[in-house]
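sorry for the late reply, my laptop died twice this morning and i had to redo everyting from scratch. anyway the thing you sent over, i finally got around to it. pasting the sequence first so we're on the same page, its 148 residues, then the predicted structure underneath. double check i copied it right bc i was rushing
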Amino acid sequence: MGFRAIVIAVCLVLGLGSAQAREFVVSADQAGLIRLPGDAAGVIVGNPGIADAMLYDSRTLFVTGKVFGRTNLIVLDEAGRVLYTSDLVVAQPDSGTVQIFRNSGRPETYVCAPTCQALPQIGDDQSWFNDMNIQRNAIRDGAGTAEN
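ok and here's the structure:
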């Protein structure tokens, strides 16, 4: 057995082959881009409540973080072979956020870039979180404000 064959065998045993899971990190409410090594035919997100993935074309994948958490991402080619796999981590945005603590002891999170706007996050004060999400959903759905 040649040296090259031994190195390949060791890499496969140690899980260092091309199908090794890597980590892809995207912030909540942000999109990330993955350039694929071949033509993709299907995308699977382990927990679609944590993130979405969409093929833009056969070699370009957009991943959008929904809520904080960890899941996995698998991309298959037309023959059903694994083209790409990774652990998918949705993280809290690490810049431009401010947390305000009031009497409840639980924070209210805002993103400030350049003006501050509510950015409800898991772990925020529950009442504030619910109120902000009702308002965000009303705006998203075109209803204007929650009072409409």
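The mean pLDDT is 82.
thats about all i looked at so far, will dig more tmrw
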